[in-house]
Amino acid sequence: MLRRPVIGVIFALMLTGESMAAAVSIELASGTALEEAGEAQLYRILARYDLQSLIFTRRVRIESRVIPHSHPVLTLNTRHLDDDELQLATFLHEQVHWFCSEKEEAVDAAIADLKLLYPEVPVGAPQGARDKYSVYLHLIVNLLELDALERLLGQKKAKAVIARKDYYLWIYDKVLQERAKIRPVLREHGLELPRS
Predict the structure, then answer these.
(1) Is residue 172 part of a domain?
(2) Helices 155-163 and 84-101 sit at what angle, rounded to 10 degrees?
(3) Where are the beta strands (DSSP E) in the chain?
(4) Is pTM beyond 0.90 here?
(5) DSSP for residue 75
(6) For residue range 17-32, what is the model confidence (pLDDT) as tens digits?
(7) 195 located within any domain
(8) C-beta of residue 179 within 8 angstroms of C-beta of residue 143
(9) Could you tell me the residue range of the domain that residue 34 belongs to?
């Protein structure tokens, strides 16, 4: 793991026009050129969008050739270096996992309700997730990811970004086509992203 504090691993940005700053610590797994490009991309994203209310962990790792994941450290890969909007979506997706991990009881209750709405779900890529629990969890995570993207990009562009994804296809389809069915479950259990 390569930490680079001297050249700005801690990135402070002004948010919502106030003097408040939020720091995101970025570490590179091995310091390759691809990872450095991923770091620059994330700095660009952090500077461009108001993410203050959407950051639930401030530690981020950039690592080539891994599947992005949220825990124990939010880890992004270098797959979308040519698409800041897809990388933004990935960053938000993993941040939403951190949000959900802070609301475990509410998530479990929402999953129980989602099982009633969707008794049969696909397991495995590219339609579903690794197991049934993960499919139900991602109905929550992916809808909140879409909410965050719509806040930042607008509804039309957010949908276009989601349409470019090649995984969780059934889950994203449900989130896009049946959000009116899923949304009340999230609301009932207090699973709504904070506003700035």
Answers:
(1) yes
(2) 90
(3) 10-14, 21-28, 59-62, 74-76
(4) no
(5) E
(6) 222 224 799 999 999 9
(7) no
(8) yes
(9) 5-99
